[in-house]
Design a protein that fits this description.
416 residues
């Protein structure tokens, strides 16, 4: 059966996705046989997924059934996206818009999504909106390039694939700023787990986890959706009570015998893309970075001259100094993430955790982000724990820890 029209829109670093969605909703034909305003459609996106998760959390309303206790909010990224796609397919739309459909997904779930969409494209109009070149759906042959508020090119697949990739090698000049003072870190590993086991409601998630993270190392944590990566991180950050009674040492103290949760958090710089949603005040870029000295959401304390100077050095490094007084919320998401990485690093914490940091970024911004992480690893004593399914081009972790699911919970091993 001949496929109906499937096309894609590639959003560049300066591309305006909101403008594109308005064009589609307003009836811009592009190559469609009919304007979308005459058809019944659905949107598969992070925004759609978040809407249904919010409905669960705020109103206890379960419109979509997912993996863990039938709740989206408790399920892995893969389970969430499978459930959302099944829900949408069951509604029999005339067209489907899929936006950054592979964010935070493992290889198995990605293959499932591709197979499902491939079959779906036999019967409906499928429109992909994406920002990473390697995420183009294999059956799509026509790609529009969106830059600013315009479509500036229409390419066939072979032309698009042949375009050169971004080279971030000279993205940052100068060294990363030094801290005002250094942490007094004890000798020995920052994190040590021996035969750690975690279970929820009788279901084992992690078993016999043995892992040692030492000062100055650069680790990547990998594992399929639902394998327990978030659970493992919560043990390290102190957010999970499951760490008590375990053979777990954090910054020299066995869990439950020494430091408080807040003392542990003070030694950890943490970043995940959802953090950008936590900052709703009108703090400037400079104020946001300074707030990292106080681990606060917003700046409420008058900073010292030294703290202001270091924040400005970070702004110069990430090439945002001239915009230092611009409100954080006014920046595009990629630049917001750069600011938050600087915020996490102003104190040079002993441990920096980056949880899916490039999810949703375009190719150029992801390359810049990768270059910045490599620079931090090379020029500081901060240990980096990078969590992602995606193997970013140019990323240079020294070691990889992999979670491997079994019927009795995931085991862990250092990848060869």
């Amino acid at each position: 059966m001949k496929k109906k029209l499937s096309i894609a829109f590639y959003i560049t670093r300066e591309g305006d996705k909101d403008w594109l969605m308005q064009q589609l909703a307003g009836g811009n034909y592009f190559d469609f046989p009919l304007p979308l305003s005459n058809l019944k459609g659905e949107v598969f996106s992070n925004k759609t997924l978040q809407y249904f998760i919010d409905e669960e959390l705020r109103h206890d309303h379960f419109e979509i059934v997912a993996g863990v206790q039938n709740r989206l909010s408790l399920s892995s990224s893969g389970e969430q996206r499978k459930a959302l796609l099944s829900y949408i397919v069951a509604k029999n739309p005339d067209y489907l818009i899929v936006e950054n459909v592979f964010d935070s997904l493992d290889k198995v779930t990605r293959a499932y999504i591709v197979s499902t969409l491939n079959q779906l494209a036999d019967d409906i109009l499928l429109i992909q909106i994406f920002s990473r070149r390697d995420e183009l759906l294999p059956f799509v042959q026509t790609i529009y390039i969106v830059e600013g508020n315009a479509v500036n090119a229409k390419l066939e697949k072979d032309e698009f694939v042949a375009r050169p990739m971004v080279d971030p090698d000279s993205a940052f000049t100068g060294s990363i700023p030094l801290p005002i003072k250094t942490f007094n870190v004890q000798s020995g590993p920052l994190v040590k787990m021996m035969d750690v086991k975690v279970a929820f409601n009788g279901r084992t998630v992690l078993q016999k986890i043995c892992w040692e993270i030492n000062s100055g190392e650069f680790w990547q944590l990998i594992g399929p959706n639902g394998s327990g990566k978030s659970t493992l991180l919560s043990l390290i950050t102190g957010n999970s009570p499951k760490g008590y009674g375990q053979n777990l040492v954090l910054f020299g103290n066995k869990k439950g015998t020494g430091e408080t949760v807040w003392e542990i958090k003070a030694k950890i710089g943490y970043f995940t893309p959802t953090m950008t949603l936590q900052f709703e005040r009108q703090d400037s870029a400079e104020q946001m970075i300074i707030s990292g000295f106080f681990d606060s959401v917003g700046l409420y304390i008058h900073p010292s001259d030294g703290q202001v100077q270091i924040a400005r050095e970070w702004l110069k490094l990430i090439r945002m100094y001239k915009d230092k007084q611009q409100p954080f919320r006014m920046f595009p998401e990629g630049k917001q993430r750069m600011i938050l990485i600087a915020r996490a690093m102003v104190k040079h914490p002993p441990l920096l955790i980056l949880d899916e940091p490039t999810a949703g970024l375009d190719d150029e911004m992801a390359a810049l982000f990768t270059a910045l992480i490599n620079k931090i690893a090379a020029e500081s004593n901060t240990t980096i724990l990078y969590v992602s399914h995606k193997q970013e081009h140019g990323l240079s972790p020294g070691k990889i820890f992999e979670l491997i699911p079994t019927q009795n919970g995931s085991i862990g091993q250092i990848a060869k």
